Amino acid sequence: MTDFEKEIIHKIDTKTKPPGALGKLEDLAFRIAKIQNTLSPVLKKPAMLVFAADHGISDEGVSPFPKEVTWQMVMNFVSGGAAINVFCKQNNFDLNVVDAGVDYDFPKTEGLIHAKIDYGTQNMKLTEAMSIEQCKEALKKGAEIVDKKASEGCNIIGFGEMGISNTSSASVLMSKFCKIPIEETVGKGTGLDDKGILHKKSILKEVMELHKDKTKPLEILASVGGFEIAMITGAMLKAYQNNMIILIDGFISTAALLAAHAMENNILDHCIFTHKSDENGHAKMLEFLHADPILHLNMRLGEGSGAAVAYPIIESAVNFLNNMASFESAGVSEK
Question: Do 93 and 62 lie in a common domain?
């Protein structure tokens, strides 16, 4: 343990409370102070980026919803009607939606960032979802968007997503990076019944077989990822480089983190895991990353919703560290 880490613990432990009495808030305060390298951390201009893209694998019937729902939900985001809009407004997040690769031409709209790589990925059951060049471009665009947020003063950022069939990509990414059988990574997604889940598992077993020789992180991401997932991966890596706090949402966002972690092992030092999703597989993702999420509210919506909902708890951790009296300042006797 470094001298600075000891200073953080001393500040936490000498607040007017029994040691450890604030539980996970103390862990959060320690982590945030360490990331910012200060005993008085500040959360500045929290931002949420929701990346959207379509997936060729949707042609295989792995989701009960048609891919048109992707662009329709993007329009719902920009008009302010989705859950993530409500939670971001509640917690003063700057929200932007990013067209990473939706099969639709959006008009210029306030709050919508146009970063389209293509009109959806290829069907990963038949070929690579994207080329290496496209994957690199997605990583770059995600990084550029985060760089802009950092230049505007943001130091804490969350990532959401929207893309019909993107749980299929996330399941395969999880299987590849965590070395877990695909049967254990597949869940309901947007609401499959038991028969639908069996079909999805069957299709994704074929995907795994086709891409079994892909072992390098970039190859894996390109062959079975989505444009939104790749862009989030690049965004997370840039947030780490900019010394930002990274809020990790649910199943899809954590799949992007698996890719980012494979490329930069130290990124976990900057991550706060906001909740455990009820999507099958997320718990094992968290276990693989040795992560202890703040919340478990049986959510599995995506969009960054878990990260936004958890934000007031993160604020509480910073506020007690900065504003709560110490035994000495309050004139309270320690044992």
Answer: yes
Number of domains the chain is built from:
2
Q: What is the pLDDT of residues 49-71, one digit of tens each?
A: 999 999 999 999 999 999 999 99
Question: Quick one: what percent of the chain has pLDDT higher than 70?
Answer: 100
Range of the domain at 63: 47-313
- Which domain CATH number covers 249? 3.40.50.10210
HEC assignment per residue over the chain: CCHHHHHHHHHHHCECCCCCCCCHHHHHHHHHHHHHCCCCCCCCCCEEEEEEECCHHHHHCCCCCCCHHHHHHHHHHHCCCCHHHHHHHHCCCEEEEEEEECCCCCCCCCCEEECCCCCCCCCCCCCCCCCHHHHHHHHHHHHHHHHHHHHCCCCEEEEEEECCCHHHHHHHHHHHHHCCCHHHCCCCCCCCCHHHHHHHHHHHHHHHHHCCCCCCHHHHHHHHCCHHHHHHHHHHHHHHHCCCEEEECCHHHHHHHHHHHHHCHHHHHHEEECECCCCCCHHHHHHHCCCCCCECCCCCCCCCHHHHHHHHHHHHHHHHHHHCCEHHHHCCCCC
Give the chain's mean pLDDT: 96
* Structural domain includes residue 335: no
Annotation says 315 is catalytic? no
Catalytic-labelled residue, pool 60, 110, 303, 315: 303
Same domain, 37 and 118: no
Say yes or no: 276 and 293 in one domain: yes
pLDDT per position as a tens digit, 205-230: 999 999 999 999 999 999 999 999 99
**Pair 324, 182 in one domain:** no
53 and 27 assigned to the same domain = no
Q: How does residue 20 score in pLDDT terms, banded at 50, 70 and 90? A: very high
